[in-house]
Amino acid sequence: MPFTPDSELDLLFPAELIPSEVTKLLPSELHMRPLASTDYHRGHLSVLSVLTVVTDPGEEAWRGQFEAQRAAPRTYYPIVIIDKPSDRIVAVGTVFIERKFLRGLGCVGHIEDIAVDKSQQGKKLGLRVIQALTAISENSGCYKTILNCSDSNIPFYEKCGFQKKENEMAKYA
Ligand code: ACO
Questions:
Q1: Rounded distance from Cα 153 to ligand 1 centre (Å)
Q2: Strand pairing partners for 81?
Q3: In sequence order, which residues have a C-beta less than 8 Å from that of residue 58 and are 6 or more positions away?
Q4: Of 18, 109, 128, 166, which has the fewest CB atoms closer than 10 Å, so is most exposed?
């Protein structure tokens, strides 16, 4: 499939919010942009499957989730990196913005669901995704950007400038 330029896509948030300081560091065959309404067909779930077991909900339900995120403006910022020759997704990540009553009505950026296709790992794509999401969080006015990860990923996030703080608690339904 030929590369589809941003101008022909229905994007979840404005592409200008992704800083050019980060996108210019990518190799020329790669392109970083917001998630698009047709990315179900570009391997979005397949890239996420390097992170955990993914159940395909079908295109219609996937599209419903895309619209639900878009209906909450200035909150969800899912980004993808596209391999231009194949028009396929090779890396993904999201930051969502939590608005607080604390900290002078401050906000916090939560980074979620970072995944780089196995064939592209170790080429700084994970780093570029984190740099872009952190910039979106900080440019949204967040006083901190946080995430949960396994022990084995701590060195990666330290390379991205994050520090270990406190603990994660979870209760699964
Ligand atoms: N242990 C030690 N160092 C690491 C690791 C690791 N597991 N992963 C990356 N690094 C280092 C790299 O060597 C590089 O160091 P350098 O600057 O000295 O060369 C630096 O971190 C940046 O690495 P990238 O090349 O950007 O890493 P990559 O593109 O492979 O992305 C990621 C890292 C996202 C962890 C990827 O390997 C992946 O998708 N793994 C499977 C899914 C996963 O675990 N996702 C994260 C879940 S946590 C969350 O979503 C909040």
A1: 7
A2: 32, 91
A3: none
A4: 166
Render pLDDT for 30-81 as a digit per residue (tens, 0 to 9): 999 999 999 999 999 999 999 999 999 999 999 999 999 999 999 999 999 9
Number of H helices and E strands in the chain, helices first, is 6, 5
In 10 A of CB 36, how many CB atoms? 23
Buried b or exposed e, range 90-105, using 16+ CB within 10 angstroms: bbbbbbbbeeeeeeee
Cβ(70) to ligand 1 under 6 A?
no
ipTM of the complex: 0.98
Q: Is the minimum distance from the CB of 50 to ligand 1 under 6 angstroms?
A: yes
- Atom number of ligand 1 nearest to Cα 123: 25
Question: Tokens 């979870």 correspond to what residue?
Answer: 170
Atom number, ligand 1, closest to the C-alpha of residue 116:
39
